[in-house]
Every structure is written in C-alpha cells, then in structure tokens.
Amino acid sequence: MQDLWINLFLAINHLEGHALSPKIMNNLNFPYLLLLISGGHTQFLKVNGIGNYERLGTTIDDAVGEAFDKTAKLLGIEFPGGPKIEEYAKKGDKNYFNLPKPIINKGGCNLSFAGLKTAVLKISKNLKKEEEKFHLAASFQKTIEDILYKKSKVAMKLFKEKNKNKNNSFVIAGGVASNKKIRSKLIHLSKEENFKPIFPPIDLCSDNAAMIAWAGIEKFRLGHKDKTNFSARARWPLDAKAPFLKGAGVKI
Length: 252
Known about the structure:
Elements: H1 2-7, H2 14-20, E1 32-37, E2 42-49, E3 52-58, H3 64-74, H4 82-89, H5 114-124, H6 130-162, E4 169-173, H7 180-192, E5 196-198, H8 209-221
C-alpha cells in the first residue's frame, strides 16, 4: 500500500491549480489565454496544455490583489480587503480622483501597480470626510478595471498572433477574478475582441483544495508522477523560461 501511494505522488504548483480551475466546470480546449490575478500574482499566459505555459506579460512590481488589500488597509478595512473595496466603490464617484495608470501605453501586456499604490497612499492621508473614502475606493476600482481592460486587449492581440486557430478563449482566474465589476469589464472586452470569457465559480477563485485536486487529476491522466522528496518551492513559475521582471530599473 505504501508503494502505491509513492507511485501516485504528484507535486502541484498552486498557480497551475488556478490555471486549470475553469476546466472543473467547463469543456475547455487548449490553447487558451489566461489572466491570473491574485494577491501575489498578476500575469498573462498562453496555456498550451498541462505543464506547457508561455508567459506573455506580468507585473513588474506589485500584484493587483496586493494593491486591493493595501488600498483597503489605508481606508481602514480589515484584511482581506478586496471584496470590501468593491462594496465601498458602489457608494462613491468613480471619477472623483484621477489616479495614475503606470505603463498603460507601453511595455506590451506587462503591468505595474506600485505607482497607483503610492498615489492612493498620498490621497488617503488627506481624506477629511467619510464619503471621500467611498470616492477613493470607486476611483481605485475604476482605475484597476481600465488597466486590466487595456492590458488584456494587448494580450488578446498577442495571443491571436500566436494562435492560428480561431477558437479563442479568455480565462480569468485567481482571487481577484471574483470581483464582479472586473468580470463585467472583461466580459465586455471579450465580446469586442471575439473571445469566449471563462471564469471559475466565485467560490473557486481564491486558493482552494478543489483546484489543486483537479490539477492533480489532469496530471495523473497523463501519467505524471513525482518523487516524494520533491522540494517545496516558494517561487515556482509556470513558464520557467520567462525572464524575471521585478524591481526598479526593469526595462520594459
């Protein structure tokens, strides 16, 4: 029995769990375009198959989920603050604050959120009225939507150039994919660009056991197995060949 379990051991990258999670509920064919948005990751990937990922773009500094949580903290919202930001935004004026959209018109489909976080920090120090918190949340939510819309459009163009068949699917996964306003914005974009938008169910967007189990099932079906002494990896990229893009001085 022990030998049986050893032969069935599979090491699962939790990012691959996110990448494959929509397949739990959808008949999804490879390749597809993936936008992975979470507290620690923001990247576009061309998913060619199980274990076969090509990164098209990534954040050069902070993840979008981190920007949500930082903004929530500045507004006095307890962690995790992302869902609350969306609720605050409903009560505010999305055009009240003009927030920056770093590298919005350059860098391909790479993204940056550090400058946006800094702008929110500066504004938050001078808020005098309760309703201004709602305005800042609304302005922040709109800015994130605009950034993801623009960068997703660039990623779609790049994906089409690489994908010669015309069956284009756009998967949005990760914790931030549960944001309803972001979902609506990216569904609208998908219709414009002739992509089929696909999301995991909201309860499968954040890290969960089901997505890890599903990734294991997919790998098991292909005969994958790992040794039990497989080392844990704090940073385990889906595309091992992609260059590291983090920190000041990154050329985009």
